[in-house]
Amino acid sequence: MSEFKTLAHEGLWKNNAALVQLLGLCPLLAVTSTVTNALGLGIATLLVLVGSNVTVSVVRNWVPKDIRIPVFVMIIAAFVTIIELLMNAFTFGLYQSLGIFIPLIVTNCAIIGRAEAYASKNSPLLSAWDGIMMGLGFAAVLVILGAMREVIGQGTLFDGAELLLGEWATALRISIIDFDNQFLVAILPPGAFLGLGLIIAVKNYFDERKKAQAQPDPSPEKAPRARVTSLT
Amino acid sequence: MKLTMASSPHNHSLKSVNKLMTCVMLACVPGILVQSYFFGIGVLVQLVLALMCVSAAEAAILKVRNRPIWPTLSDGSAWLTGVLIAVSIPPLAPWWIVVIGSVFAIIIVKQLYGGLGFNLFNPAMAAYVLLLISFPVQMTAWQPVNALLATPLSFVDQLSLIFTETTQAGVSLDVARQVIDGATGATPLDHVKTALSQNMTSSEAMDNLAFSRFAGEGWQWVNLAYLLGGLYLLKAKVINWHIPVAMLVSLSACSALGFVLGGHTGVAFHLLSGATMIGAFFIATDPVSASTTNLGRLIYGALIGLLVYLIRQFGGYPDAIAFSVLLMNMAVPLIDHYTQPRTYGHGARK
């Protein structure tokens, strides 16, 4: 059981794909202008990650080591194609609004990273759990960033949720602040970088505080590494 | 090698950060006075507002960072940032513009990078760019000089425009800033850009109420006043000559070349309009974010001049000082790396 717990902690917090590994920044920065877009892409990435992790794990003993990367990429591409066709069929509005970033999930380093670092060495069940947790961690950051940018930029939340969830979700739209002037920078790419930087700062703040509580003796530490990638 | 400290006297310019910043702020005074003479008392209102906001923001973030508040605040660098933000935004812009700008400049651009001396970008200009891309309408709403306004604005009206966005009589800024012939007055740079995009000839573009002689009523005097302040800074050895001279020479060369090749705007127009002079002497010379070697300063200034001309001529925004300075701020580490002077006694002369 403890393996599952460790994986959950790693994926959601300690080794979060977006906040610690800083992988998959391209979609992270590009589509998080609203919660709906962020949630849509987060779910799509989550599904691809779980699918590819399980498949890679199943075939791990038959794939020659030398050509494993092309094989992994093909597996991931297959799942991305499935997701893309599904979104095209069932959430067409969101499909249009995410545009090129759905096919680009293939290039999301978080996915091939997990295939290489975890799924190719572990059992399908563990790999599936790892995929779920990593995907959830990534999706959570997407949604938080999307919420920040949407509230600051447009003063709304869940604008356009009906694209993802169907007609009933129109009622989800919350208007928090009514601006005469949109704060455009939050919606533009610089806002995504600033927002991500602030979220990472908040995470580091909590980590530092936890460390300080666990170890009351304040011995000064030498420059901590910003990226911790534990590949066990 | 043993480095021994010789006994005193040591040569020291006796300039603390506080003294330098005070000097620069004093040098801004003629420019600010001329600006408020031409564009109304709103300039001073924005100035007070900006100074209050930067002080509050600096105190707050220093508290969060557990740093001593008064020693850092009293070095004056935050106030200088406030002054530069206040003079670069339109005098009748709503109050929250200057508040957002000041808070962003101090907290994000300066203190999150580590405070004075560590910021990669010029805080005032980063804030200006943030405001310009976020609120393009408010940030380009410069009113024409007072003398050309259809109805002169009283002090109370200007205050009311800044804080409630209408005059006392309920007139909005768009109406209040109409000139005598009924057109709203854009800045000269803005006006030329619009006119040329409507396929007017250059003489038509330059022939406008807002234009007298070189660079537009008011603007040329504002620029000359900042030039005066800049010369004082040079005289007081607060700034080196390299950056302003390189920038102005390069801007003049570009605009002269452009004019000869059939451009519409001459050298005097470029030198005396927009933020050229305050940019050359007060903004590009920021000791933290500018290049630090003499050769590097020349390159840095010259490239700013080139970028200013290119963006003004071909870019989408009317003025270009802020964008050029920020772009060159990014290039500063590279420039500094390649222009390190030869240490005396080390390496060979090439």
From TrEMBL, chain A:
Bilayer-spanning residue ranges: 12-32, 38-59, 71-87, 93-113, 125-148, 183-202
- Gene (name only): rnfE
Matching entries from Pfam families are given as: Rnf-Nqr (PF02508)
State the GO CC annotations.
Answer: endomembrane system; plasma membrane
Query: What protein name does the entry list?
Result: Ion-translocating oxidoreductase complex subunit E
- InterPro entries recorded for this chain? NqrDE/RnfAE (IPR003667), RnfE (IPR010968)
What is this protein's function per UniProt? Part of a membrane-bound complex that couples electron transfer with translocation of ions across the membrane.
Query: Which family does the similarity line name?
Result: Belongs to the NqrDE/RnfAE family.
The Enzyme Commission number assigned here is 7.-.-.-
* GO BP, sorted A to Z: electron transport chain
Going by the record, the broad EC class of this enzyme is translocase
Taxonomy, superkingdom: Bacteria
Q: Where in the cell is it found?
A: Cell inner membrane; Endomembrane system
Query: Mainly resides where?
Result: membrane
Assembly and oligomerization:
The complex is composed of six subunits: RnfA, RnfB, RnfC, RnfD, RnfE and RnfG.
Ranges where the record places region Disordered: 211-232
**Keyword set, alphabetical order:** Cell inner membrane, Cell membrane, Electron transport, Membrane, Translocase, Transmembrane, Transmembrane helix, Transport
Q: Which organism is it from?
A: Pseudoalteromonas luteoviolacea
Matching entries from HAMAP family are given as: RsxE_RnfE
Bilayer topology reads:
Multi-pass membrane protein
From TrEMBL, chain B:
Sites of the modification FMN phosphoryl threonine? T187
Q: How does it sit in the membrane?
A: Multi-pass membrane protein
Keywords annotated in UniProt: Cell inner membrane, Cell membrane, Electron transport, Flavoprotein, FMN, Membrane, Phosphoprotein, Translocase, Transmembrane, Transmembrane helix, Transport
**Primary location recorded for the protein, binned into one broad class:** membrane
UniProt KW Transferase keyword: no
Domain of life (superkingdom): Bacteria
Q: What is its EC number?
A: 7.-.-.-
Its annotated compartments are: Cell inner membrane
Give the required cofactors: FMN
Zinc-finger among keywords: no
Q: One short Pfam family name for this protein?
A: NQR2_RnfD_RnfE
Q: Where are the transmembrane segments?
A: 20-38, 69-89, 241-261, 267-285, 297-314
Annotated GO biological processes are: electron transport chain; transmembrane transport
Q: Name one GO cellular component term.
A: plasma membrane
Q: What class of enzyme is it?
A: translocase
Tell me, how does this one assemble? Answer: The complex is composed of six subunits: RnfA, RnfB, RnfC, RnfD, RnfE and RnfG.
Q: Which family does it belong to?
A: Belongs to the NqrB/RnfD family.
**What does the record give as the function of this protein?**
Part of a membrane-bound complex that couples electron transfer with translocation of ions across the membrane.
What name goes with this protein?
Answer: Ion-translocating oxidoreductase complex subunit D
- Gene symbol here is rnfD
